Amino acid sequence: MNPHLDPTVRHDVVLLFDVTDGNPNGDPDAGNQPRIDDETGQGLVTDVALKRKIRDAVPELRPGDPRYGIFVEAGHALNTRIEQAKAATPNGSVEERQNWLTERYFDIRMFGAVLSTGQKEENKKSAGAGQIRGPWQFTFARSLDPVLPVDHAITRVTQTRPEDIEKGETTELGSKWTVPYGLYRAHAYYSASRGGKTKVTSEDLETLWTVVAMMFDHDRSAARGQMKMCGLYVFSHPNAFGVAPAASLTDRVKLTRIDPDKPARHHTDYQRHIDADGLPEGVTLWRGVDLWA
After folding, report:
1. How many other C-beta atoms lie within 10 A of the C-beta of residue 56?
2. At what angle do helices 94-104 and 78-88 cross, to 10 degrees?
3. Looking only at Cα atoms, what is the longest distance across the chain?
């Protein structure tokens, strides 16, 4: 088995992706402006946004597969699916319900879920199926350099209300936020012990890597401009506990601006260097995506 497909060992991951003339993750508290760190000006993309893209891409790769359903899915109430698990497990134990759900929903197996919602049952202190801590944890993505969000005024030739047309109005104004360019970096971490509890398989990991590599290709939107995965680097340990701190591995992937005086507009404006020499004994590096290669 390839080390990056082994669910019984620890994995530490570096993700690099970029955006050109788009909004990678709007902030609803700021009029949907691109998220930024107010102190540094660096762009941000939440872990929730990254996992949403993974969830949306899995059914494209595994259509109709009963093990690859998505629990957190638009148009489906969570309590309804929890009630299905309760109905399918006659003994009514929380463990049974969790096993039933993890067997059917890819995102629960990988990311975990809060399942303690719905009505409480008679003679029970809690509702639903408790809580599952998933083996995968993603960080926020942060741009390597400050980004400059731009507000573009846009017009359309039709009106929202018929009375506006009657008044003689011919256009309506709107706005659209974009980032000219940003190269973002995120990390992800896999706990083999938690993966054992949710019964993650090598097929699950293969599905995850395939989806992460191509998720932006299946999430196109005019608002997001051009987004692409530039780098996917997986450090795999020889055992579940690991033989080195995660930071000592992920820090081996370094990027520097080639011309600091010129605004970056492409991933090739950065030089990528990976220190793959002298890895701790048993640690391997898999390059799932590497546009600098």
Report:
1. 16
2. 120
3. 76
| Amino acid in the structure at residue 155 | T
Instruction: State yes or no: pLDDT of 125 exceeds 70.
Output: no
Residue 21, Cβ density class (10 Å: 0-12 exposed, 13-18 middle, ≥19 buried): middle
Written as six digits, the tokens of 246 are 């995660």
Is the pLDDT assigned to residue 144 strictly greater than 70?
Answer: yes
What span, in angstroms and rounded, lies between the C-alpha atoms of 133 and 138? 13
- φ and ψ at 101, to 5 degrees? -75, -45
pLDDT digits (tens, 9 = 90+) for 189-233: 999 999 999 999 999 999 999 999 999 999 999 999 999 999 999
pLDDT of residue 172: 81
80: number of Cβ within 10 Å: 9
Closest CA to 279 of 239, 249, 257, 258: 249
C-alpha–C-alpha distance, residues 282 and 249, integer Å? 13
pTM, to two decimals:
0.93
* Burial environment of residue 181 by CB neighbours within 10 A (0 to 12, 13 to 18, 19 or more): buried
Burial (CB count within 10 angstroms: exposed 0-12, middle 13-18, buried 19+), residue 260: exposed
How many CB atoms neighbour CB 8 within 10 A? 13
User: DSSP character for 47?
Assistant: H
What residue spans define the domains of the chain?
Answer: 3-290
pLDDT, tens digit, 9 for 90 and up, residues 29-62: 999 999 999 999 999 999 999 999 999 999 999 9
How much of the chain is helix, strand and coil, in % rounded to 5?
30, 30, 40
Distance CA 62, CA 58 (A): 6
| Bridge partners for 232 per DSSP | 15, 289
* Nearest of 234, 280, 191 to residue 5 by alpha carbon: 234
